[in-house]
Specification:
Layout (H helix, E strand, L loop, with lengths): L1 E6 L16 H13 L17 H15 L3 H8 L6 E6 L6
Antiparallel strand pairs: 1-2
Length: about 100
């Protein structure tokens, strides 16, 4: 197994976080939970009650659906969330690509 670490540069047209502890999925989860004031089972943090009413589930689907339609820049504009500038790629050594 070979690990290659890449370091990106935060540029106005290609945003990324210099914070190595950045988690895009955690940030988006927090955004969704704050927006609807409950948590879905599949993205649940322990901070909020589970969405259980029909209205909460409709709101959840609405927010998730809207985010799914956005490109990365739009998600950043809406949520303030961005991926880390640093990322790793893992490859099995000796196997041709």
């Amino acid at each position: 197994m070979r690990k290659t670490v890449y370091r990106g540069v935060d540029k106005p047209d290609q945003r990324c976080s210099k914070d190595k502890e950045t988690s895009l999925s955690k940030c988006v989860t927090d955004y969704v939970e704050n927006k609807i004031n409950c948590s879905a089972m599949m993205i649940r943090s322990k901070k909020r009650k589970i969405c259980s009413t029909l209205e909460e589930l409709r709101q959840l689907l609405g927010v998730l659906g809207a985010l799914a339609e956005m490109d990365e820049d739009m998600v950043y504009d809406e949520t303030g969330c961005m991926h880390s500038c640093d990322f790793s790629v893992y490859e099995v050594a000796g196997i041709p690509k």
